Amino acid sequence: MAQRTLQDKLAILSDAAKYDASCASSGTTRRDSRSGGIGSAGGTGICHAYTPDGRCISLLKILMTNFCIYDCAYCINRVSSNVERARFSPEEVVRLTLEFYRRNMIEGLFLSSGIIRSPDQTMGDMVRIARMLRIEHGFKGYIHLKTIPDASPDLVAQAGLFADRLSVNVELPQDASLRHLAPEKRPETIRATMADVRLGREAAKDRSHTGKRPPRFAPAGQSTQMIVGADQATDVDILNTSANLYSGYQLKRVYYSAFSPIPDASAMLPLIKPPLMREHRLYQADWLMRFYGFDATEIGSAHPSGNLDLAIDPKLAWALANRAQFPVDVARAPREMLLRVPGFGTKTVGRILTARRSGVLRYADLLRMGAIMSKAQPFVTLPDWTPGALTDSAGLRARFAPPPEQLSLFG
Fold first, then answer.
1. 0.90 exceeded by the pTM?
2. What is the mean pLDDT of the chain?
C-alpha cells in the first residue's frame, strides 16, 4: 500500500470531520499573543465559527484519524464501514495547525478522532498535540478538543488545561437508542465525563488560601452534539434532554445534527434523512429555552405529535396555541411576557422596558426599536394599535405559514 502524503490525509480527515457540528468557538480571551508566542483566539479571519460578538473566525477542523474500533451504526467511520482510512501523527497535526495559521488561513484548531487501540491511547495523543502547540510552540489561538468519554479522568483533566473548549458528544437523545445503535458506548460514562469537565471548571474558579488562582480549565466551557432523526425521539424528547444537559452540566451549547444516511447503513437506521428544517427549528427552540424563559414541554405542547411545526417558528407556534394570553399591553406587560411576543427579540424587549419608563410607546416607536411588527400585530395592544378580532381569527396561522407548493411529478 502506497504511503499517503500529508495532503492526502488532510483531504480524507477534514472531510470526515464535517459530520461534527459542535465546533463553534466562544472567542475566549484567555490567550493573547501580544505578550509572546503566536496565534490568537480573538482575531479576524475566514469564517467557520462565530464568537459571541458576531465575529466570524476560522478553525482547522480535522480528525486525528478515522480509524475506529467502535461500530456505532450511525457513524460513517465505524469499524465495519468501507471508507478510505487515514491517520495523522501528533507531529503532523501540530505542523498543519502552525502552517495554516502562519498563512492566515485559520485562527484555531478543532480536533476530534476515531478511537484507535483504546480511549486512553486516543485521548493521550490528542492531549499531546495540544501540549506541543501550547508549550513547545507558544500557540495562543483557539483549541477545541473532542473528549473521549472512556478515557481516564487524568487525561480529561490535562486536556482542560490546554484546550479552550472541550466537548463530549451524547450522540443520541435517548439512552436506549444509544445502547441499541452504539453498543460499545455507555450513556453513564458520557455523562460522568461531562460531570468531570464541569467539576474541573468549577474548581478552576476557586482561589487558594493565599489568593492565588488555579490554572484555567476549558475557559470556553463544554458543548455536545445530538444526532436528529436517527431514532424515534420526538423534538420534545430532544429538547428535554438538552434542558437537562444545560442545567446539570452547565453546557455552553447543544448542537443538533440532522442524520444523514451513510453507505452500507444498518437496517436499524431510517432510509431517508429528516428535513433540514427540523434541525433549524430545534436550534430556534433551544434559543427560546436559553434566552426567552421557555421550557421544553411548553414549546412542544404547540403540536400534539411532540414535534415542532416545520412551517412556522416555535415561538409563533406557541403564541398561536396560547391565544388566550394575548394580546398583551406593551405599556404594562412584564418582561417575561414581552419575551413571548412573536417579533420581539431580547434586545427589543430591553429597549421597550427602558423607553416606557419615560413616555408612551406607539407603533412607530416599536418599529424603530427593531420589533418585527408584521409578526407582533395580532399579539399586542398600543395606544394607536389594537388587533381587534385578528388575535382569534381562524386564518391567523395561514397569514404566517408559507403558501403550499405544487409537488413535481418528475422530481
1. no
2. 87
